[in-house]
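Hi there,

I know you've been waiting on this one. I reran it after we fixed the sequence typo, so this is the corrected version. Both the input and the resulting structure follow.
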Amino acid sequence: MQQPLIETLGDELFDALRENRTLEPLSSRHPEISVEDAYRVQQRLIARRLDGGEKVVGKKIGVTSQAVMDMLGVYQPDFGWLLSGMVYDDGCTIDRSSLIQPKAEGEIAFVLKRALRGPGVSAAQVLAATECVMPCFEIVDSRIRDWKIRIQDTVADNASCGVFVLGDRAVSPRDVDLYACGMVLERNGEVFATGAGAAALGSPLHAVAWLANTLGALGIGLEAGEVILSGALAAMAPIARGDHFRVSIGGIGTCAVRFA
């Protein structure tokens, strides 16, 4: 795919984000688009946002759990960028109209104290480089109409990232069994889904190692101080105006968010 078309598609996604609207799938309009092309489109989208004054604050891993793969029909992980305009605090209220077609995912967020640069990063190295872990919500959102996405569509759309909410506690990853820790996701006081750390590529540590190694092959590192979202631990929950969500992760803490 030629660079002018890459830039056009990245600009289309940027405009859709700013105008709060959807597009027809890139993969249906341009069947020739590869995953590599899609990451180049993603880079154009992120560059437009950075030109607008946002800053990179971390990275995210998408499509890590079987539940999400089955919901989306996408069967390989991907990655995206976390920017300063995406961050919310525990207990916040988010204007539902600021998002397009959002869904809530309960995840474990990592905060790094040292950089990780692949290839060859192991789960043990991820553990050693992590300052703390936190409960969080990733509010995924898609600029692709009706979530009719293939892997190329979600990759181009910054791994369908919307915003994220960090929870009420930061704990040492050495004090938590990140494989077995259980998660309960509640919507409006009722249990919507349950999961465990193992849902994210077998362990959130493995997920972060996958990200470090995948980005390392592209000459990109995970930097000290960055937030890394390690992937959903259960199915995504659709969001309506007035909804209240709470996620609890054993040994880590809770995170809550409302949508007005």
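Quick highlight: The CA atoms of residues 114 and 128 lie 8 Å apart.

Best,
R. S.
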